[in-house]
Amino acid sequence: MKKKITKSSGNIFVDLGFDPAEATVLQMRANLMSDLRLYIEKHKLTQSDAAKRLGIAQSRVSDLVRGKWDKFSLEMLITLEARIGRTVRVEFAA
Are 36 and 80 in contact (CB under 8 A)? Predict the structure, then answer.
């Protein structure tokens, strides 16, 4: 049986059929969550320590590291990045 391979658009959410505008926000949220998880891993933080640095409850850190993206708005993820001293930039492409 021959399998069909489809080239990705570069945004998994577009590939899954989301509206392009919504897919863009979903991709941003996924990228920020991944970045925050990597920060926690790189600094070998416990969930309790991460909660203190991020200014959120430990249960929210648990949601973050478990990838529960539906529990975090784009605004909240940007806020969490700022709390660890990072700046989030949005680039516009034509």
Answer: yes
On whether residue 29 sits in a domain, the answer given is yes
Q: How many CB atoms lie within 10 A of CB 38?
A: 10
Q: Which amino acid is at 31?
A: N
Residue with tokens 């605004």: 75
- Please state the pTM of the whole predicted model: 0.84
Domain assignment of residue 75, given as a range: 17-83
Structure-token pair, residue 84: 């660890």
Q: Residue 16 has which token pair? A: 């899954």
pLDDT tens-place string over residues 41-60: 999 999 999 999 999 999 99
